[in-house]
C-alpha cells in the first residue's frame, strides 16, 4: 500500500548520485536541453545518518523523496526526523515524502525506479546486497559507511563496482570526516614541505600516521537522545568495530598521507590487528534502545558481566611503505560535557602534526605543531599561516605553547560539527556530478579502503 506524506517545504541534501548517464557518464542528464533534478530514493533507513541526508536542501535535488522500507520503528523514526526538519524554526526544509512500506520494498524500488539515486543507511549486513540490486537496475548509490563488514561482502563489492562501471552509474560512500576542520588543516600543513618535510616511514611501535576515535552508544542527535535499534549491538548486523568506524580512519590515512594518489591493495600489508568487547549492563541496554530485555538474537553475546559487543578494534599496517595505526573505541556514555573524541598524529621529517581532543582542549579537537628543527622554524610557520594556510582558512592564528610547540587557532566558522558535514559532502559530490565523474583515485581507493578493513578483520579473528 502506498501513502503520501506532505510536509511543508521543499528539497534536501542530495548526497549521492550521478544520474543514470545514458549519455556517456560525462554530464548531468538533460531532456530537451533542460537539466533534470536529482531524485532520491531512501531504502530501509535504519540509521540516523539516513535522515541527516535530508537536513539540508539543494536546488539540484527534487523536493519529493521516495522511501521504500518495511514497516517498523526505524522508518517511523526516519519520517519523524524529516518532519522535524520541515517544521524547525530556523531554515526549515520542505520535503514531500512518498512512502512504500511493505515487505517487498527492495523489489518495488528497483522495479518502479521513481528516482535515480538510492540513499541507504541502516543494517550493514544488508547494505552490499542493496547496492548490488541498485546498480544492476541502473541506479546510482549513495551509502553510509561501511559498505561491507566481512570477506563475502567485499567480494560482492568488487562485483558491484564492475557492474556500476558497465551501467555508467556511481557508487559512493559518505566520508564526512574529510570535512572536519582540524583534519583538513592537518592535511594542508602536511603538504607544505618547508614546514612538514616528508612523512617518515615509521615503525610498528611508532607509526608514521596514527588515528584513534572514541565513540559512545548513548548520545544526542539533532538535540534529542538517540534511540538505537537493538540490532545495532549485533555484530552480525552492524559489523564489528574494526570494520565499521575504522572505515573513516583508514580513509583519512589514504586521503591525508597520499593526496590525489591511487592506492592499490597490493600496497597494503596488515601487520597486526586485535578486537575486544564493550560490556553493557541490561540497564544501559534499556536506556539506549528503550527495550525491556535483550532480544533472542543477542543471547549469543551475553556473558556474566553483561552484553559483550565487539565494537573495539585496532590495526597496524603498512601502506605504500609507511606504517599506519588505526583504532576505534566504543564506551557506553561520554562524561558530562564531553562527547566523541579523536586523536591523530602525522610524523614528518621537519615536524609532527597532532590533533588532540582531551580535557586540556575542552574536549574539542585542536591541532598542534611540534618542530624538529631550530629557531627558524617559527618564522617559517608564521609565514605559512599568513600565506598558504590563510588562503584556505582566513583568520587562522598561531599560539606558542612551549619551546618547539604551537597551537593552531582555527576560526569558529570552520567548526560546524558532524551533522553539518553531510551538507559539505553533498555539495562536493554535486560538483563531481556536474563534471560527470569522480576523481580518478576515488573508486580504486574505496576498494583499497575496504580491502584494508577486511584484512584487519581477518587478522584479528586469527588472534
UniProtKB/TrEMBL annotation:
Coiled-coil residue windows: none
Positions of the Putative oxidoreductase C-terminal domain: 185-461
InterPro entries the UniProt entry points to: Gfo/Idh/MocA_oxidrdct_glycsds, NAD(P)-bd_dom_sf, Oxidoreduct_C
Keywords assigned by UniProt, alphabetized: Oxidoreductase
Keyword Translocase attributed: no
The UniProt record lists the keyword Zinc: no
Pfam families for this protein: Oxidoreduct_C
Top-level taxon of the source organism: Bacteria
Name of the protein: Oxidoreductase C terminal domain-containing protein
Organism: Maribacter sedimenticola
Amino acid at each position: 500500500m502506498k501513502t503520501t506524506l506532505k510536509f511543508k517545504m521543499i528539497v534536501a541534501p542530495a548526497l549521492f548520485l550521478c544520474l543514470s548517464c545514458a549519455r556517456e557518464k560525462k554530464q548531468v542528464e538533460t531532456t530537451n536541453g533542460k537539466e533534470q533534478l536529482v531524485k532520491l530514493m531512501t531504502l530501509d533507513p535504519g540509521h540516523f545518518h539516513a535522515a541527516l541526508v535530508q537536513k539540508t536542501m539543494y536546488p539540484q535535488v527534487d523536493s519529493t523523496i521516495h522511501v521504500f522500507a518495511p514497516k517498523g520503528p526505524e522508518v517511523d523514526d526516519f519520517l519523524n526526523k524529516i518532519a522535524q526538519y520541515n517544521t524547525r524554526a530556523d531554515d526549515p526544509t520542505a520535503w514531500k515524502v512518498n512512502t512504500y512500506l511493505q515487505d517487498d520494498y527492495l523489489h518495488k524500488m528497483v522495479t518502479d525506479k521513481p528516482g535515480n539515486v538510492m540513499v541507504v543507511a541502516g543494517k550493514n549486513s544488508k547494505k552490499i546486497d542493496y547496492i548490488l540490486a541498485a546498480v544492476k537496475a541502473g541506479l546510482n548509490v549513495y551509502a553510509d559507511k561501511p559498505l561491507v563488514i566481512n570477506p563475502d561482502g567485499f567480494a560482492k563489492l568488487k562485483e558491484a563496482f564492475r557492474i556500476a562501471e558497465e551501467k555508467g552509474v556511481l557508487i559512493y560512500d559518505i566520508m564526512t570526516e574529510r570535512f572536519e576542520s582540524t583534519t583538513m588543516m592537518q592535511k594542508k600543513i602536511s603538504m607544505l614541505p618547508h614546514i612538514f618535510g616528508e612523512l617518515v616511514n615509521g615503525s610498528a611501535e611508532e607509526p608514521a600516521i596514527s588515528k584513534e576515535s572514541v565513540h559512545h552508544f548513548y548520545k544526542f542527535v539533532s538535540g534529542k537522545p538517540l534511540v538505537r535499534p537493538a540490532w545495532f549491538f549485533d555484530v552480525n548486523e552492524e559489523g564489528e568495530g574494526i570494520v565499521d568506524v575504522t572505515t573513516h580512519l583508514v580513509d583519512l590515512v589514504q586521503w591525508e598521507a597520499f593526496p590525489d594518489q591511487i592506492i592499490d591493495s597490493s600496497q597494503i600489508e596488515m601487520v597486526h590487528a586485535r578486537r575486544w568487547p564493550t560490556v553493557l549492563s541490561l540497564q544501559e541496554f534499556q536506556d539506549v534502545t528503550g527495550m525491556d530485555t535483550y532480544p533472542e538474537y543477542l543471547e549469543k553475546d551475553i556473558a556474566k558481566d553483561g552484553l559483550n559487543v565487539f565494537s573495539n578494534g585496532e590495526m597496524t599496517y603498512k601502506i605504500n611503505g609507511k606504517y599506519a595505526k588505526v583504532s576505534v573505541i566504543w564506551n557506553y556514555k561520554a562524561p558530562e560535557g564531553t562527547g566523541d573524541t579523536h586523536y591523530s598524529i602525522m610524523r614528518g621529517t621537519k615536524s609532527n602534526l597532532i590533533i588532540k581532543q582531551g580535557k586540556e582542549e575542552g574536549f574539542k579537537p585542536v591541532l598542534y605543531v611540534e618542530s624538529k628543527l631550530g629557531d627558524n622554524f617559527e618564522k617559517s610557520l608564521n609565514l605559512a599561516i599568513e600565506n598558504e594556510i590563510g588562503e584556505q582558512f582566513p583568520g587562522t592564528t598561531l599560539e606558542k605553547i612551549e619551546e618547539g610547540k604551537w597551537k593552531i587557532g582555527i576560526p569558529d566558522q570552520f567548526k560546524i560539527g558532524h551533522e553539518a558535514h553531510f551538507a559539505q559532502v553533498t555539495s562536493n559530490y554535486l560538483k563531481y556530478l556536474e563534471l560527470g565523474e569522480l576523481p580518478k583515485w576515488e573508486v580504486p581507493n574505496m576498494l583499497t579502503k575496504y580491502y584494508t578493513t577486511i584484512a584487519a578483520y581477518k587478522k584479528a579473528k586469527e588472534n
